[in-house]
Amino acid sequence: MQMKTDSSCCNCSKPKDPGRRSALKICTGALLGLAAASAHRTHAGEISDARPEIGDFLVRTDAEGGTQPLTISDLAVGDKPILAFPLEPASGAIKSGSRLNKVIVFRVQPEEIDEDMRRNSVEGIVAYSAVCTHQGCDITNYVPKDNALICFCHFSQFKPTHGGEVIGGPAPRRLPVLPLKAENGRLVVAGKFSSKPGATAG
C-alpha cells in the first residue's frame, strides 16, 4: 500500500516571499548608507577641527554663505584685511570647527617686510592667526599708518612686517604666522603656524 505525502506540510515547497526579500534588501542598504554617512560626518568633523596643513587653500565666506578661495589678485596694499579659514583640497572640508584656525590676511609693501617674514609671504601678502595671544579676542584690524595689527579688547599691538612681534599692550608673545605660497594664483598654506594660536603659551 502506497502512502500519500502532503506536500503542503513541507516548508521548502512554499514559495519565497519576494516582498519580504525586497524589504530586507532595502533595510540593509539603508543601514549601510547610514553607517557610511556617519563615518563621513565623523571624518569631516575631524578635518574641520584640524590645524592648517601644507597644501590647504585659504577661503573666505561670501554674503550668501558660499566659499571663495583667496587669490593674489583679491588683495591690494591698503585694502581691509580678509578673515579666512583653511580648506583641505582633497575632501573640500573647511577647517572652521575651531576658531583658532581663523586667520587674518592682508597685503603690505613687499619692501617693508623683514627677511624672515618675506619667506613666509607672497608678494607682500601675509597671514597671521586672528586670535590675540593675550586673552584670545579676535583681531580684525590692521592700521597701515602705525603698521600694526590691533586687538581692541585690551589694545595689544603686533607688527606684521616683522613676524607679528609685540609692539604694544599686554600680549605676552608675538602673533603666530601662517606661512603662505602661491599655486596658480591661489594662496596656499606653506607650513604650520609658527607657534600655537590663542592665549596659551607658544
UniProtKB/TrEMBL annotation:
CDD domains: Rieske. InterPro entries: Rieske_2Fe-2S, Rieske_2Fe-2S_sf, Rieske_Fe-S_prot, Rieske_Fe-S_prot_C. Its cofactor is [2Fe-2S] cluster. It comes from the Bacteria. Keywords: 2Fe-2S, Disulfide bond, Iron, Iron-sulfur, Metal-binding. The keyword Disulfide bond applies. It holds the Pfam family Rieske. Residues 92-189 form the Rieske domain. PANTHER family: CYTOCHROME B-C1 COMPLEX SUBUNIT RIESKE, MITOCHONDRIAL. This is Rieske 2Fe-2S domain-containing protein. The lineage of its organism: Bacteria, Pseudomonadati, Pseudomonadota, Betaproteobacteria, Rhodocyclales.
